[in-house]
């Protein structure tokens, strides 16, 4: 069984992050850690192997206040950005699938409805989603336009007082188990968002098979075959791509913390292994090359955590920019992948087995690297911020 880091692990003692956190933030962290250790860790290896998403855990996360926790009102906890980040960190230390779930539910679907929905839409969906009684998804990406949502071809046409949605979406997390989808489509007035109950005729979600990453999560192809909706289904406050981009920024922020959770779990596994693995009459932890790998990994982990905390403090102050989130996502996912790879080498042959979480985290992080903006996209976002010149086209 792969248990998330204990509060007294060498990694946490050396990091000393708890001294920089408030009692409320620590409480959120400890609750998320307990949930990860008792409800996710005992079954995650089997869930990953069999591609099982445990929907029964969703109401438990709701009862803990962790769904849409950064939002206020309609049953949401109104927690701070650092608290939310710490929850993401602990969940991803168990498995990326569960941080992804919290991101899709809270940062994407619930945030879209909270920020841009009508009072009726908010009252209808947010309390149930916060409680984990309803699951949401966020349908933006299309088969031929992952990094270029402006090229979307899904359309919404207003006909006789109804919106008719037609098109396809791909890599839509949770769509086949969702109760509601926030769907983005091109209208005569530009790109708009729509609240779509997934039992609407013409809405079909199919799980994507053959995944070698994020196997305890669900990603789908979505078909919109003349889905008919009332005029009130449109999100009234969402006009253009700025609205979905705002939601994506919330999810990317969670990744900044979450990726370091996967790195932490892998680092702690390697530290523990190295202290007991005997080679040439001594534990490998006593060898200089092993200590070099562990020390390098920890230094990058500490940098990543301090960057996450810095961005969290900016978010709580209301000054965090999208470009700063791009720095965090690019750096922390990239460094997490490097840390996990290095720790796999410390574990040697055992590192490729499910006795340790490292290969599972390595595979998951490849998906995390791609979604919510690839390395290339975030590099160009940062380059534009530095130079004032866009290099996307």
UniProtKB/TrEMBL annotation:
<keyword id="KW-0809">Transit peptide</keyword>
<dbReference type="InterPro" id="IPR037069">
    <property type="entry name" value="AcylCoA_DH/ox_N_sf"/>
</dbReference>
<dbReference type="GO" id="GO:0046949">
    <property type="term" value="P:fatty-acyl-CoA biosynthetic process"/>
</dbReference>
<dbReference type="GO" id="GO:0050660">
    <property type="term" value="F:flavin adenine dinucleotide binding"/>
</dbReference>
<dbReference type="InterPro" id="IPR052033">
    <property type="entry name" value="Glutaryl-CoA_DH_mitochondrial"/>
</dbReference>
<protein>
    <recommendedName>
        <fullName>glutaryl-CoA dehydrogenase (ETF)</fullName>
        <ecNumber>1.3.8.6</ecNumber>
    </recommendedName>
</protein>
<dbReference type="InterPro" id="IPR013786">
    <property type="entry name" value="AcylCoA_DH/ox_N"/>
</dbReference>
<comment type="similarity">
    <text>Belongs to the acyl-CoA dehydrogenase family.</text>
</comment>
<comment type="pathway">
    <text>Amino-acid metabolism; tryptophan metabolism.</text>
</comment>
<dbReference type="InterPro" id="IPR036250">
    <property type="entry name" value="AcylCo_DH-like_C"/>
</dbReference>
<keyword id="KW-0285">Flavoprotein</keyword>
<dbReference type="GO" id="GO:0004361">
    <property type="term" value="F:glutaryl-CoA dehydrogenase activity"/>
</dbReference>
<dbReference type="Pfam" id="PF02771">
    <property type="entry name" value="Acyl-CoA_dh_N"/>
</dbReference>
<keyword id="KW-0274">FAD</keyword>
<dbReference type="InterPro" id="IPR009075">
    <property type="entry name" value="AcylCo_DH/oxidase_C"/>
</dbReference>
<dbReference type="InterPro" id="IPR009100">
    <property type="entry name" value="AcylCoA_DH/oxidase_NM_dom_sf"/>
</dbReference>
<dbReference type="Pfam" id="PF02770">
    <property type="entry name" value="Acyl-CoA_dh_M"/>
</dbReference>
<feature type="domain" description="Acyl-CoA dehydrogenase/oxidase C-terminal">
    <location>
        <begin position="240"/>
        <end position="386"/>
    </location>
</feature>
<dbReference type="GO" id="GO:0000062">
    <property type="term" value="F:fatty-acyl-CoA binding"/>
</dbReference>
<keyword id="KW-0560">Oxidoreductase</keyword>
<dbReference type="Pfam" id="PF00441">
    <property type="entry name" value="Acyl-CoA_dh_1"/>
</dbReference>
<dbReference type="GO" id="GO:0033539">
    <property type="term" value="P:fatty acid beta-oxidation using acyl-CoA dehydrogenase"/>
</dbReference>
<dbReference type="InterPro" id="IPR006091">
    <property type="entry name" value="Acyl-CoA_Oxase/DH_mid-dom"/>
</dbReference>
<feature type="domain" description="Acyl-CoA dehydrogenase/oxidase N-terminal">
    <location>
        <begin position="27"/>
        <end position="133"/>
    </location>
</feature>
<dbReference type="InterPro" id="IPR046373">
    <property type="entry name" value="Acyl-CoA_Oxase/DH_mid-dom_sf"/>
</dbReference>
<comment type="pathway">
    <text>Amino-acid metabolism; lysine degradation.</text>
</comment>
<feature type="domain" description="Acyl-CoA oxidase/dehydrogenase middle">
    <location>
        <begin position="137"/>
        <end position="227"/>
    </location>
</feature>
<dbReference type="InterPro" id="IPR006089">
    <property type="entry name" value="Acyl-CoA_DH_CS"/>
</dbReference>
């Amino acid at each position: 069984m792969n248990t998330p880091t204990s509060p007294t692990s060498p990694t946490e003692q050396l990091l000393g992050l708890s001294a920089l956190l408030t009692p409320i933030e620590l409480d959120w962290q400890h609750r998320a850690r307990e949930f990860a250790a008792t409800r996710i860790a005992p079954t995650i290896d089997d869930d990953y192997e069999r591609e099982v998403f445990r929907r029964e855990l969703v109401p438990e996360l709701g009862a803990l206040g962790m769904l849409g926790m950064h939002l206020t009102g309609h049953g949401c906890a109104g927690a701070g950005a650092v608290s939310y980040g710490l929850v993401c960190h602990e969940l991803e230390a168990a498995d990326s699938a569960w941080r992804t779930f919290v991101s899709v539910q809270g940062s994407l679907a619930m945030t879209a409805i909270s920020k841009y929905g009508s009072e009726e839409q908010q009252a209808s969906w947010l309390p149930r989603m916060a409680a984990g009684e309803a699951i949401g998804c966020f349908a933006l990406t299309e088969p031929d336009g992952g990094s270029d949502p402006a090229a979307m071809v899904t359309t919404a046409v207003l006909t006789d007082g109804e919106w008719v949605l037609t098109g396809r979406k791909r890599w839509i997390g949770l769509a086949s188990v969702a109760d509601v989808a926030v769907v983005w489509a091109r209208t005569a007035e530009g790109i708009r968002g729509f609240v779509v109950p997934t039992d609407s005729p013409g809405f079909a979600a199919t799980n994507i098979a053959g995944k070698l990453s994020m196997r305890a999560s669900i990603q789908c192809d979505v078909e919109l075959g003349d889905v008919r909706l009332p005029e009130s289904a449109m999100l009234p406050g969402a006009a253009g791509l700025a609205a979905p981009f705002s939601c994506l920024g919330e999810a990317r922020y969670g990744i900044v913390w979450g990726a370091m959770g996967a790195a932490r779990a892998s680092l702690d596994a390697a530290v523990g292994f190295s202290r007991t693995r005997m080679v040439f009459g001594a534990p490998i932890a006593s060898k200089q090359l092993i200590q070099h790998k562990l020390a390098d990994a920890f230094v990058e982990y500490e940098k990543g955590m301090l960057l996450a905390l810095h961005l969290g403090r900016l978010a709580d102050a209301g000054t965090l920019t999208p470009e700063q989130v791009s720095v965090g996502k690019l750096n922390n996912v990239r460094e997490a992948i490097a840390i996990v790879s290095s720790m796999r080498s410390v574990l040697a042959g055992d590192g490729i087995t499910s006795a340790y979480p490292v290969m599972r985290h390595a595979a998951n992080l490849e998906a995390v690297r791609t979604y919510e903006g690839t390395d290339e996209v975030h590099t160009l976002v940062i380059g534009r911020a530095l130079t004032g010149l866009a290099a996307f086209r």
